[in-house]
Amino acid sequence: MENSLRDRVVQIASPIAFILIWEMVARFNWMDVRFFPAPSSIMETLSKMISSGEIFSHLFISLQRIAFGFALGAIPALILGLAMGLFKWLRTILDPFVAFAYPIPKSSILPLIMVIFGLGEMTKIVTVALGVFFLVLINTIAGVRNINPIYLDAAKNFGAGYVDTIIHVALPGALPLIFAGLKLGLGAGLILIVIAEMVGARNGLGYLIWESWQSFAIARLYVGLVVIGLLGYLSTIIMDELEKRLVPWK
Fewer CB under 10 Å: which end of the chain, C or N? Predict the structure, then answer.
């Protein structure tokens, strides 16, 4: 209990100490504040953007794109991953395609996606979906294949059909690795939405960062980075809580 409390204190104190040191170094001009503005300056800029509502407009549109892209990538990946994990013949057919497509950086496919879908919302959503898809797919397949075959055999012996086997055996057994894939996919989605919004977007956190760079508004750029970091942190907490509730045996 004491170790846990100490760890929690350290986790809270270490970033606070880092921010205080950064503030002190900036105030004494020990580093170039043009590139590394003081945290107080960043917070002042954030406060102004909150008051004007600007940060919320960028945040909400990015969240919307991430949500649609995450769903578009994760749901098909989950279904296909369960099927590939259960059926060797399907895995044999599709494994070469997965092995070929997965290593390709999804950001490098963005120009092709833009050619196909134009500069509209679908480009951002599809970019996120592609990043999420393969991470969830591969982890789901691994999760199903890690299930002890005795459980699958027992379900078969009791007359369970394919749907029952998936719902009552494959899905629960694969959940720990599925959640690992979902967490990785969500992180990839955050990265990709920023990249996608830097190209051909007029709003969103990625656009905010790019526009701030173009106008050399460095404090605004840091605001965008901080908000993205907070999004990643909060999404991790939410996914961890969901995992605790849905995978209590882990």
Answer: N
Domain parsing of the chain, residue ranges: 1-31, 37-246
Domain at 37-246, CATH from 3.55.40.10, 3.30.160.670, 3.40.1160.10, 1.10.3720.10: 1.10.3720.10
Place of tokens 């960062």: 209
- As a whole number of angstroms, the distance between CA 202 and CA 191 comes to 18
DSSP 8-state symbol, 106? G
What tens digit of pLDDT does each residue of 90-140 get? 999 999 999 999 999 988 999 999 999 988 899 999 999 999 999 999 999
**Helices (DSSP H) in 146-170: which residue ranges?**
149-157, 162-165
Cβ atoms within 10 Å of 42's Cβ, excluding its own: 23
Instruction: Let me know: does 194 contact 209? Beta carbons within 8 Å.
Output: yes
CA dihedral 30, 33, 39, 41 (to 10 degrees): 130
The residue type at 243: E
Task: State CA 171 to chain mean position distance.
Answer: 21
Cα end-to-end span (Å), the chain:
21
Rounded to two decimals, the pTM is: 0.87
